[in-house]
Amino acid sequence: MSAEKVVTLEELRKYNTKEKLYVLIHGNVYDVTKFLDEHPGGDEVIIAEASQDATEAFEDVGHSDEARELLPGMLVGKLEQTEEIKLKSGAKEAQEKRLASAVEQGSSLMYWAPIGLLAAWFGYRFYSTGAL
Q1: CB of 36 within 8 A of CB of 21?
Q2: Which phi and psi angles does 122 have, rounded to 5°?
Q3: What are phi and psi of 22, to 5 degrees?
Q4: What is the pLDDT averaged over residues 40-59?
Q5: Alpha carbon of 113 to those of 63, 86, 99, 118: distances in Å?
Q6: For residues 13 and 29, is the Cβ–Cβ distance under 8 A?
Q7: Is 39 exposed, middle or buried (0-12, 13-18, 19+ CB in 10 A)?
Q8: What is the SS3 assignment for 30?
Q9: Burial (Cβ within 10 Å: 0-12, 13-18, ≥19) of residue 40
Q10: How confident is the model at residue 40 (pLDDT cuts 50, 70, 90)?
Q11: How far is CA 112 from CA 26, 37, 118, 126, in A?
Q12: Which of 60, 101, 114, 124 fits a 20 to 30 Å CA distance from 37?
């Protein structure tokens, strides 16, 4: 029995086109190139998850047992453990940046929403009674 191939993060990121596409699910690297045209959700869904950990996206969709049975036939190997840690820390940093951006955008909404509501109330009062 042969040893399982170990895939580096560099190799995972190298194959991110329709010609050759690797995805990472539960620490395993899969070559999904031949499956792109057959994917019920379209190839864009898989391409969007290329070069990163697609575990959450895969599980969120709720794939059937039949879909899960296809994975062993596409298995390339296991992502190198140190590489998996780098990938997760990079994903965490990206998530923190998105969260900070969302909070920053939300703070301006919190400023303008009460002003807009107050202006709408005054407008309603003025036009419904003819005077304040």
Answers
A1: yes
A2: -60, -40
A3: -110, 140
A4: 82
A5: 41, 41, 21, 9
A6: no
A7: middle
A8: strand
A9: exposed
A10: confident
A11: 43, 47, 10, 21
A12: 60
Residue type at position 61 = V
For residues 21 and 71, what is the distance between their CA atoms, to the nearest angstrom? Answer: 14
Residue with tokens 């919190």: 110
Task: Look up residue 33 and give its two tokens.
Answer: 């190139």
Spatial strand order of the sheet with 20-25 comes to: 6-7, 75-79, 28-31, 20-25, 16-17
Q: What is the DSSP track for 112-132?
A: HHHHHHHHHHHHHHHHHHS--
**Would you give the end-to-end CA distance of the chain in angstroms?**
86
DSSP designation for 3: P
pLDDT of residue 1: 41
What are residue 8's phi and psi, to 5 degrees?
Answer: -85, 165
DSSP 37: G
pLDDT tens column, 75-119: 999 988 765 555 555 555 555 565 566 555 555 666 677 888 888
Across 65-82, average pLDDT: 87
**Which pLDDT belongs to residue 18?**
87
